[in-house]
Amino acid sequence: NIIHGNFGNSVFLRMPVTQAIIMHLGPTLYLTLLALSMSVVLGIISGVIASSHHNSIIDQLIMVVTSLGVAIPNFWLALMLVLVVALPVNFFPVAGYEPITDAGLLGTLRYLILPAVALGFGQAASIARMTRANMLEVLQNDYIRTARAKGVPPNKVIFKHALKNAVIPTVTVIGLSFANLMGGAVVTEQIFNIPGIGRLLVTAVLRRDYELISGIVLYISAAYVMINLLIDIIYAYLDPRIKL
Questions:
Q1: Residues 162, 133: Cα–Cα separation, whole Å
Q2: pTM for the structure as a whole
Q3: Going residue by residue through the chain (244 aa), what tens digit of pLDDT does each one get?
């Protein structure tokens, strides 16, 4: 029946599992994409800056921040963001969610920014460290020295010649980050009371709704496989030699 898209019926929700997943898919999708976008942009930029200022104070500061990002659990960071940012500032909601159709894009982002920061900070740190390591290796190659010797501007050397070759291993980390974000969304959605797939999974486990649990796990697995397939396709675009 699963091959035909029939995952059974949820015992407690009294509806098909597929329908329940679709109803809760929006908040998780928006949260994951926002967290992934933030982690990729911040991670790559931080890694490039750190590698271009190797062994400087900027490099050391970025490495300290990324070490904290890797070490700090996302649930602790989520609680700290609620206590330190959401409550004093009174701009970001402490909990809850409103869809784009009701609150608009900016209104929905107010609910998702803090959860996305809590969810994506650790992944941004991993991407930054990987980007820095790859950039330092690529910057030692002969074609980079040749470009510099020809008088190519430093920014063009870094972003056009070095980054495109250094980002290929980083893409793998980005693909794995998606799986970590999906898993971390379970805890983050619970803390910020976001009605997404993660919170639905926790509720299904507590209620022992086995049909719903199986459907959600299969959905997460399928999403992970599709992301890895997309990563392989991106490889061929970034490095034409892979097509051979």
A1: 12
A2: 0.83
A3: 888 778 888 888 888 988 888 888 888 888 888 998 999 899 989 988 988 888 889 989 999 999 998 898 888 998 898 888 888 877 788 888 888 877 778 888 888 888 999 888 988 998 898 888 888 888 888 888 888 888 878 777 877 777 877 777 788 778 777 777 777 778 888 888 888 888 888 889 998 989 899 988 888 888 888 888 888 888 777 777 766 6
| Amino acid, res. 135 | M
Q: Rounded to an integer, what distance in angstroms lies between the CA atom of residue 40 and that of residue 170?
A: 9
State how far the Cα of 138 lies from the Cα of 232, in Å rounded to an integer: 21
The CA–CA distances, whole Å, from 90 to 111, 116, 168, 207, 208 equal: 12, 18, 41, 35, 37
Say how far apart CA 73 and CA 235 lie, in whole Å. Answer: 31
Q: What SS3 state is found at 130?
A: helix
CA-based nearest residue to 98, from 87, 88, 111, 89: 111
d(CA 168, CA 58): 24
As a whole number of angstroms, the distance between CA 207 and CA 198 comes to 14
